[in-house]
Amino acid sequence: MVKENRVVLHVKSIGENVALVRMVASGFLIPYDLTMEELDEIKIALSEAATNCIIHGYAEQPDKEFTVLLEVQDQTLTIQVSDTGVGISDIAQAMLPAFSTRAEHMGLGFVFMQTFMDGVEVISSPGEGTTVTMYKQLPLVEPLAEGDDWEVEEIG
Amino acid sequence: MEWEVTRDTLTVYPNGDLDMATAGVMKEEIETILYSRLGVKTLVVNLNRIRFIDSSGLGMLIGCYKYMQGRSGGMMLVEASKNVYRILEFSGMKKLMPVLCEEQRR
């Protein structure tokens, strides 16, 4: 059975904190036996959501705060990232590949979230903020039972 | 950030995570180096020391690509780690410029 856990972070909306949030998520996910590839994908999805809060939600105003929830329940990882910023008026348009309100951005943020996670939900109201909730099924790690065969692999 | 110019090629060695906090700074650094070296026609970004990249980092690389195009030059990405290479491939970067992973040293 995958261990259940929950962490909530209130994060000042500055770019440096995107790396910090990724680091917390990496630590949070240690017990769940993910491959480096899976871990990297989750970190990218989280990074995109947090970056959106800072750049789009708060237009890079550093005195704002966004919230990150990390939760594992019933073998499912939930990552929820919310801001109380400008909100999105057309969610379907915002989620289109290569759509960006800013020229220097590639519009890949939501594409990465949708590609790397099993599900992405966006709730947003103009002037009230945006909540992005992402789900990912975690691999089931069966504990060793008595009588199971096992061996120690020597590395290097 | 370490860098070197050999003939008409500038090679830069950015390190750490390439995300929204670092991408802008790196682009400025690269453009500052290029600004005073008009003879440079090729920008090589050695990604050996980059362990993480997201869409902000990719956007920065596209920005550099456009800058090099603006001076009729070219750009390539080399020595990307497995994880970074996968993201570069997925984002279609290979349609714009050569992208080599760690195993494909020039």
3D structure, described in words:
The complex is a heterodimer of chains A (156) and B (106). Chain A is α+β, with helices and mostly antiparallel strands. Chain A is elongated. Chain A has one domain (5-137): Heat Shock Protein 90 (2-Layer Sandwich), CATH 3.30.565. The longest helix of chain A is centred in the first third of the chain and has 22 residues, at 36-57. Chain A has four helices and five strands. The mean pLDDT of chain A is 89. Chain B is of the alpha/beta class and 106 residues long. Chain B has one domain: STAS domain (Transcription Regulator spoIIAA), CATH 3.30.750. Chain B is built from three helices and seven strands; from the N terminus they run βββαββαβαβ. Chain B has helices spanning 20-35, 55-70, 82-90; strands spanning 2-6, 9-13, 16-18, 42-46, 50-53, 74-80, 99-101. In chain B, α3 links the parallel β6 (74-80) and β7 (99-101). Chains A and B meet through α1, α2 and α4 of A and α2 and α3 of B.
**Estimated structural class of chain B:** alpha/beta
Q: What Rg of chain A do the Cα atoms give? A: 18 Å
- The SSE order of chain B reads EEEHEEHEHE
Q: What is the CATH C-level name of chain B?
A: Alpha Beta
Range of helix content of chain A = 25-40%
The backbone outline of chain B, from C-alpha atoms, is globular
Q: Helical region count of chain B? A: 3
Give the number of domains of chain B: 1
Beta-strand fraction estimate of chain A: 25-35%
Main interface by residue count: A-B, 24 and 17 residues
What's the helix-strand series of chain A? EHHEEHHEE
Distance between the termini of chain B: 21 Å
Number of domains of chain A: 1
Level of helix content of chain B? 25-40%
User: Mind telling me which CATH architecture of chain A this is?
Assistant: 2-Layer Sandwich
Q: Total number of helical segments of chain A?
A: 4
**Which fold name fills CATH's third level, the topology of chain A?**
Heat Shock Protein 90
Strand order of the largest sheet of chain A: 1-2-3-5-4
CATH homologous superfamily heading of chain B: STAS domain
For the termini of chain A, the CA-CA separation is 31 Å
Which CATH architecture of chain B would you pick?
Answer: 2-Layer Sandwich
